[in-house]
Amino acid sequence: MSQILIIYTGGTIGMMSDPNTKVLKPINFDQIMDNVPELEKLNCKLKIHSFHEIIDSSNMNPAIWSELAGLIESNYDSVDGFVILHGSDTMAFTASALSFMLENLNKPIIFTGSQLPISAVRTDAKENLMTSIEIAKAKKNELARVPEVCIYFDYKLFRGNRSFKYNSSKFEAFRSPNYPILAESGVHLRFSQNDIRHPKENSQLIVHKNLVNDVAVLKLYPGIGPKVVEAILKADVRGIIMETFGAGNTTTDQWFIDMIKDAINSGKVILDISQCKVGTVELGRYDTSRQLKEIGVANGYDMTYESAVTKMMFLLGQNKDPQVVKNLLEIDLRGEITVS
Question: Which residues are catalytic?
Answer without folding.
Answer: 12
